[in-house]
Design brief:
Order of helices and strands: EEEHHHHEEHHEEHEEEE
Largest sheet: 3 strands, mixed
Number of strands: 11
Radius of gyration: 22 Å
Number of helices: 7
Strand content: 5-15%
Structural class: mainly alpha
Shape: globular
Distance between the termini: 68 Å
Strand order of the largest sheet: 1-4-5
């Protein structure tokens, strides 16, 4: 038997029973990621002059839309897991077992955010810039769910950080159950590349890149969000090539490899074109805070008239008159 100098052990299970209620690590990671994204997004939005609580209001629309979109993309691109002989189509609804496509989540989540922003008179590109680093950190946290589910890994490796994969079984029946089962024997059946961990670390690096670029160049008009998209897709491209799980292929390539390349090009094109819109939007409010430390800083006198609502005053580009966008 091959001896490995060091390896990363997998959890013995991804589901714990609290009486009749299953507590799923994957679902908990998704929830924690959403909370972190909203919390950090609120701080960054207020720092740009937005009203506190507006990110949460937008999330009420964006999160459900994003979850539905993510599941639809996953089912559409991995339809063979749910449809066909011997398959159970109802499993397509079992989101708690894992399976969310980030492309569908961002696309349909953006539709939900657009609806909410339009209702409140908030410029969507400015909101997207504020929440961008929080979203990619949420994706990193979500990858921990793949760790507990023992999924989305690469091929065999002898590298010191190889991931141990165990056989999980139903402790009552003894039948194999990769998602809901328990590893009774901690002898690894294989040691593989932890591609979920590669993506987790890459995503954290992208978050730092977005924060740095946003501070240095005062990105606006959705350009910080474009940096996030370009950075994420660049990493997803090479990480996807390492994965060995079954996936739909187009032209001999995994569909997510092609999607990453197309979306990367789109993000770069948007970043360049949006630069023509000028300086970053200014969302006028009173006090601001540092988006990363939360420390309050002095701000100009709030020009909003007493009693004005959040929707009464919105985006102003320096050197122009403020554009009022009444609530719709």
């Amino acid at each position: 038997m091959t001896t490995f100098l060091a390896t990363i052990p997998s959890p013995d299970r991804g589901v714990w029973q609290l009486g009749p209620i299953p507590i799923r690590a994957y679902a908990l990671c998704i929830i924690v990621g959403i909370i972190v994204a909203i919390w950090w997004g609120e701080r960054r939005w207020v720092a740009r002059g937005g009203a506190k609580g507006e990110v949460t209001d937008i999330a009420v629309f964006a999160v459900p839309f994003g979850l539905v979109g993510g599941r639809l993309y996953h089912v559409a691109t991995d339809w063979h897991k749910y449809f066909g002989e011997g398959k159970n189509p109802w499993e397509a609804l079992a989101i708690w077992n894992g399976g969310l496509g980030i492309w569908g989540a961002i696309a349909l989540g953006a539709v939900g955010a657009w609806i909410a922003c339009r209702r409140r008179g908030i410029p969507l590109p400015a909101m997207a810039d504020a929440v961008a680093p929080g979203i990619v950190v949420a994706q990193a946290i979500g990858r921990l769910g793949n760790y507990f589910n023992q999924e989305l890994y690469g091929g065999p490796t002898t590298l010191p950080w190889g991931l141990e994969i165990y056989q999980r079984v139903n402790p009552v029946t003894g039948y194999q159950d990769e998602l809901g089962g328990v590893a009774l024997d901690h002898t690894p059946i294989m040691v593989v590349h932890p591609t979920f961990l590669y993506e987790l670390l890459w995503n954290l690096g992208v978050a730092l890149l977005v924060v740095w670029a946003d501070r240095k160049f005062r990105l606006g008009h959705g350009r910080a969000f474009a940096v996030y998209v370009a950075g994420y897709t660049a990493g997803r491209f090479w990480i996807e090539l390492m994965r060995t799980d079954a996936a739909t292929e187009v032209f001999g390539l995994r569909i997510n490899v092609i999607t990453s390349a197309v979306v990367f090009i789109g993000a770069i094109a948007y970043f360049v074109l949006a630069a023509k819109k000028g300086d970053r939007e200014v969302i006028e409010r009173g006090e601001t805070t540092d988006p990363d430390t939360g420390d309050a800083t002095a701000a100009d006198d709030d020009p909003t008239p007493a009693g004005a609502t959040a929707a009464d005053q919105r985006t102003k580009v320096p050197g122009t008159e403020p554009v009022d966008k009444p609530e719709q």
